[in-house]
Amino acid sequence: MGDQQEHFHIIKNGNIATAKGFQAGGLHCGLRKKKIDLGWVYSEVPAQAAGVYTTNSFQAAPLKVTQESIAKENQLQAVIVNSAIANACTGEQGLQDAYDMRKLFAETMGVEEHLAAVASTGLIGELLPMEKLQKGISQVNDQEHLGAEKFETAILTTDTKEKGIAIELEIDGETVTIGGAAKGSGMIHPNMATMLGFVTTDANISSNHLTDTLKAITNKSFNMITVDGDTSTNDMVLVLANGQAENKELTPDHKDWETFYEGLKFVCEYLAKEIARDGEGATRLVEVNVEGAFTDESATGIAKSIISSNLVKTAIHGADANWGRIITAIGYSGESLDPDKVSIYLGDILVVENGVPHPFDEEAAKEHLLEDEVKILAKLGDANGRATAWGCDLSYEYVRINASYRT
Amino acid sequence: MGDQQEHFHIIKNGNIATAKGFQAGGLHCGLRKKKIDLGWVYSEVPAQAAGVYTTNSFQAAPLKVTQESIAKENQLQAVIVNSAIANACTGEQGLQDAYDMRKLFAETMGVEEHLAAVASTGLIGELLPMEKLQKGISQVNDQEHLGAEKFETAILTTDTKEKGIAIELEIDGETVTIGGAAKGSGMIHPNMATMLGFVTTDANISSNHLTDTLKAITNKSFNMITVDGDTSTNDMVLVLANGQAENKELTPDHKDWETFYEGLKFVCEYLAKEIARDGEGATRLVEVNVEGAFTDESATGIAKSIISSNLVKTAIHGADANWGRIITAIGYSGESLDPDKVSIYLGDILVVENGVPHPFDEEAAKEHLLEDEVKILAKLGDANGRATAWGCDLSYEYVRINASYRT
Q1: For a 10 Å CB count at each end of chain B, is N or C smaller?
Q2: Using a CB-CB distance cutoff of 8 angstroms, which residues of chain B are in contact with residue A369?
């Protein structure tokens, strides 16, 4: 058992296959030289399913196919994911390949096609080598490839580490588990980034409530992170709820609804923060809190403006308490605010009060900016709107990675 | 005489003091260790004046004072500019300092206060050392400090070079000159960046037409450049037209209106491009052209989205023909478009045709991406909207400069 949270426990070594009736695995099918590059998640029974997808106009082929699958009955039983190639901007051939990938996988797993989802991440504009994929898919039932940690590895691109979690909570006296895995790294920005998130739970919940909840939570978690302001063609978050915990069906009227909601939010927020922390070239996680805005929406716009600023991000990389750049980012957010009421904190240190500098200990500020988690708080003093966003610093390493990713 | 343009000549070594009746100068007053840090422009007679200002909510004190000056009679006769300290987020004391700076300068130049404008650029949140400024201002009439090149130097911050130009055109048979100077470097983004632009002309034109024209041209020049997406608190562009060329007053009905408009646009565009080319850490100028969008506004949004993408900018820095990042930036622009009609060129090289990859010579593309001016063209095929934006690559040097600017 991990940390005690209010209504749930983090399960030590918990992952996407911890909830009852779920399995996951990964193998190397040859899209990458050595690294595992094909992963899958499977539920023993069809699960209620919900998805959120990139807002990019160039939505990749696998997203179209997955949306079709879910549209049929709002259920999924199996998800397959490849890294290395995004199958985006690949025209009709790419769409056909995504259908074929789904078909092959569904047949191998023995599920109906519309119960299978596909996801891809990696280079844009290249066709999937279908022979390699086919060979890989034919092996997904081999015992040796099972293991959630293999799934976590298979979906990574330039990520430096696996991202997984599971928590346990009690609903109707039954133990319910929520687990998840994600990948991120570059092209990470609000409204779905180059990120994939997969969440599994054995909770019993209807798909329409699952869909509404996922959307609301995504807006406060995955959509509140940024690495570089680029929103990719391939992002999606899927949740599968297979009901194996046998709780009474969850609806907003259920007495334990809040517990479930907070638990799901915790898992999504955890994965989102792990993505931000592991942003390309990142050396620290940055959390921006905005309070006292006219509305929550306005606070969201301001938080995103700060977390997206290259100048704020390089200042943090240099551990320079350059609050002028934070003020500037607030000012160009396009949100309405009273400049003379704005106060800014770096960690606990007040650096701007009511729009003008407040004397502060530079050394103490520098120390905070060198911590693994840097916190910026902007108090606007206008009303009660609030929001939180996460991101990372901008380093030489980011430039190195991205000046040479493809070649 | 420089290059032959359609209706005007670039004047060799022309600058902000080339138009009849203008002078400029610069000196060291001690805001910076050694570099010249105080500059001014003066017209022998009051000039019609127009300004555009940052859209940042935290508008710096000098912008408020300058807007007050112009509001009085739409005229200016003298402009003073300091670098090193932005006089932004400095509260009431900062506003008083900006008024005092204007007053001291106006008295020294022998002009009425409302005919003087003030501008500042540099660190946010520090008060101007008024004694040093006062001493500097007292010397602005000394012959030794005259010279447009001194003005060009005085207004720079992290810029690596001076930015000036003048052109000559003919209106009513009279020779009219338009000159300008600018500074940029960091915090450069559409809607006025950390940039200052000053344009002088001896044309005879009414201030209301000058204002309308400046706004229209700024939207196609200074507001179409980006270095890092950050819009500063201090940006402004001022135009002074003193009428010394003695042409018949210019209005849109004047037979030579187009000539004047194109000339002013050329000067603003030239200065804007010079700012982009000299962006912090930049090694090349990037020009993005978007054609065939549903509207010009939509083309503008797409061009800005491409030019602002860190991933596009790092790919160009690495001379990597990674068009997937360009497609991605088009896709998340939020503008409506048909993804299946989009074609992309790097220089003359077609790399994407109707939404799917077009085979191309990687070496030739790399060669183009290594040129001093990189061109990206997106043809959308939807209608006739078009726009051009300018920016630069994103280098290690950008991170170095900005991780240590303040300390």
Answers
A1: N
A2: none
